[in-house]
Amino acid sequence: MKVLIIFDHPYTAKASENIPHQRSYSAALLASITRGLHSGGHEVDLIDLHADGFNPVMSAEELSAWRQKKTLDPLVKDYQKRLSAAEHIIFLFPIWWESMPASTKGFLDKVFVKGIIYEEPKKSRPFVNQLKKLKGVSLLTVMATPGFLYRWIFGNPITKILFRGTFRKMGFHKLKWYNYAGMDGRTLQVRTKALEKTEKRFASL
Questions:
Q1: Rounded to whole angstroms, how far apart are CA atoms 139 and 95?
Q2: pTM over 0.90
Q3: I want to staple 51 with a disulfide (CB 3.0 to 4.6 A). Which of 12, 129, 160, 198 is the partner?
Q4: Which residues form the Flavodoxin-like fold domain (predicted)?
Q5: What would the pLDDT profile of 31-48 be if each residue is shown by its tens digit?
Q6: Residues in contact with 14: Cβ distance below 8 Å, sequence separation at least 6, in sequence order
Q7: Residue 98 CA, distance from chain mean position
Q8: Residue 93 pLDDT exceeds 90
Q9: What does the pLDDT average to over 120-129?
Q10: Structural domain boundaries in the chain
Q11: Using an 8 Å Cβ cutoff, are 21 and 185 in contact?
C-alpha cells in the first residue's frame, strides 16, 4: 500500500532522538510509524512541511487561482499529485491551542483545491471526494491537555476540523484518530512502550 505521511513540527523529522531541547515526540512517533510501515511492506512517502519550507499563508493571488480551480505554487501542485496517488494518508502533528499548527491548516487551505482534491457538484450539496485511490486516513496527535479534558470540555475540536469538516464533508468516512496526551509528563518507559505499540499498529495496517 502507498502511504502518504503529512508531518508538521518545526523541528522536522530529524528530531526523533531523545536529545533535550532538540527532541519531538511527534518526530519519534513518525520514526515508529515509518519503521512499522516498512516492516509491513508498505511504500512510504513523507511530506515534512517545515523541512520543505511550505508557506501556509494564502495570498490574494493564490486565493484567486483557488476560486478558478487552479494552483500557482509548484510545491502545492506536487503535494496534490502525491495525495492523489496515496492509498492511505497519515496526518501527524502536535495540538496547539486545541487545534492543528498553522502549517497543517495551511495545507488544507491551499492543497485541498476544488476541482482537484474534491468537487462541489451543486451548491448546498455534499462535496465529492476526488482522491480515488484513498482507502483510509489516520490522524496522530500529541498534546499536553489531558485527553478527557480535550474530549469532554473542548469537544475534540481536531476531529471536528479534520474529520467532520474536511474528509466527511468530502464524503470519505474511513478515519481513525490516535491521541497521545500528556506524554511530556510520562516516564521514558511509558513513552517507549507507546512508540513500540504504534510501530506494531502500522506494521499491520
A1: 12
A2: yes
A3: 12
A4: 1-200
A5: 999 999 999 999 999 999
A6: 27, 51
A7: 15
A8: yes
A9: 80
A10: 2-203
A11: no
